[in-house]
Amino acid sequence: MKDTYITQPQFAMIWFGAALSIAEIMTGTYLAPLGLTQGLYAIILGHIIGGVLLFGAGLIGGRLRQGSMNTTAFSFGPLGAKGFAFLNMLQLIGWTSIM
After folding, report:
1. Which of 45, 59, 60, 81 has the fewest CB atoms found within 10 Å of its own CB?
2. 60 vs 38: CA distance, rounded Å
3. From CA 94, how far away is CA 88, in angstroms rounded?
4. How far is 35 from 29, CA to CA, in rounded Å?
5. Is 35 in a helix, a strand, or coil?
């Protein structure tokens, strides 16, 4: 069987894609009704900021060949990594309740 792996740009693009979500756009329209023009600007700006951050996280994970939760331990220590894992779990439960 042939070994396959994900390259750094592919891993980064996976995380960039994770930053783009129709559910968060829909939720944002409920929480902050800004009108069409301001709402579109806010959505685009938020996705650019989030996409850049998640693209960077994907690059770090790709270079280290580790998952993103593992790479947080380098910056925040083992306890900080557990905190981010807990926040991620809460976020996923929250999105499940919306969908």
Report:
1. 45
2. 33
3. 10
4. 9
5. coil
pLDDT tens-digit map of 38-97: 888 888 888 788 778 777 777 787 788 887 778 878 878 889 888 888 888 887 887 777
Residue 22 CB partners (closer than 8 Å, separation 6+): none
Angstrom CA distances, 70 to 3, 5, 32, 35, stand at 23, 18, 34, 40
| Residue 99 vs residues 22, 50, 72, 78, 95: alpha-carbon distances, Å | 11, 21, 28, 32, 6
Burial category of 2 from C-beta neighbours within 10 Å (exposed 0-12, middle 13-18, buried 19 and up): exposed
Domain parsing of the chain, residue ranges: 1-65, 68-99
Q: Taking each helix axis from N to C terminus, what angle separates 68-98 and 36-64, rounded to the nearest 10 degrees?
A: 140
pLDDT exceeds 70 at position 98 = no
Query: Could you count the other beta carbons within 10 Å of the beta carbon of residue 33?
Result: 9
The CA distance from 98 to 77, in Å, is 32
